[in-house]
Amino acid sequence: MQLIIDNLSKTYDNGVKALQNVSLEIPKGMFGLLGPNGAGKSTLMRTIATLQDADQGTIVLDGLNVQSNKYAIRKVLGYLPQQFGVYPKMSAEVLLNHLAVLKGITSKTERHEIVTSLLHKTNLYEVRKQNLGGFSGGMKQRFGIAQALLNNPTLLIVDEPTAGLDPKERNRFYNLLSEIAEDTIVIFSTHIVEDIKELCNNMAIINKGQVVLKGKPLELIDALKGKVYQKNILRTELDYYKSEYKVINDKLFLGKPIIQVYNETPLGDGFVPVEAGLEDVYFSQINEY
Ligand code: ADP
To answer: CA–CA distance from 92 to each of 76, 126, 144, 288 (Å)?
Structure first.
């Protein structure tokens, strides 16, 4: 089970280069696509989901070319878009049943079995008779996953699923995704570093349409070991430090500015070494020096 993206590029009519020579190999499990807003994440996901075409490059799922086999790919694909609308006056059970008909599950018995099992899987069985309009953000997202799983996909694509969810709902949603990822390729995008940390076996950072880093989160963190330093500074010194050092992050600690710097060799001058985290990996790639 593998998705291979090779040299994918897309320029929109307005000249925006949304994807530039993107190449990724995505195995079974959770794959996190991390990048700031406008990086190209949705463009990439919509292209994999056969909803738009690239100008160049190929996407191959288990030997099948995605662009030239759209119909076949849709049969094994689940997709939860960033904006997922529901009919507010329908119950979860009725809408899921209706969507199952549209997905071609014509046998009533089979449909009932699938719908019931998905309502259980997404923890919505108890609220199946309630109208979707009254669902919380997390419940709506779980319903979104239930509909994406109707055809038992081998590839599940989820675009920024945790936006607007509170921590408890986010956790519940992560648990659901990682359970699905045990026998599915799950690609999900986010601009929240924390989302990736404990969840993904593999990840890529995308910025301005380009893959700037890819690998396993722990290995990427390891590569920064001994190269991240921290210092308390005065507010007025920030510009100086930004011009002299690779400042990957500046934040406030108890109201006082603190900077995090990337340096290949040990730093004196009041800097202390700190343990690198995934946030450092991310900002070291995203920030411009
Ligand atoms: P992300 O999902 O990472 O926020 P997108 O893929 O939505 O990024 O967008 C990548 C870039 O392409 C952005 O600069 C965005 O404004 C631009 N873009 C996205 N969709 C279109 C479109 N249909 N037409 C023109 N530009 C677009």
So the answer is: 23, 10, 10, 46
Distance 14 CA to ligand 1 centre (A): 10
pLDDT tens digits for 269-287? 899 999 999 999 999 998 7
Distance 196 CA to ligand 1 centre (A): 22
Which residue, chain included where needed, has tokens 């330093």? 229
Give me ligand 1 centre to Cα 42, in Å.
7
Nearest residue CA, atom 20 of ligand 1? 43
Where do the H-state alpha helices sit in the chain? 41-48, 70-75, 92-102, 108-121, 137-148, 167-180, 193-197, 217-222, 238-244, 278-286
Q: Cβ distance 40 to 197 under 8 Å?
A: no
* Residue 48 Cβ contacting ligand 1 at under 6 Å: no
Atom of ligand 1 nearest to the CA of 82: 2
Q: Give tens-digit pLDDT for 3-62.
A: 999 999 999 999 999 999 999 999 999 999 999 999 999 999 999 999 999 999 999 999
The reply to whether the predicted model has a pTM over 0.85 is: yes
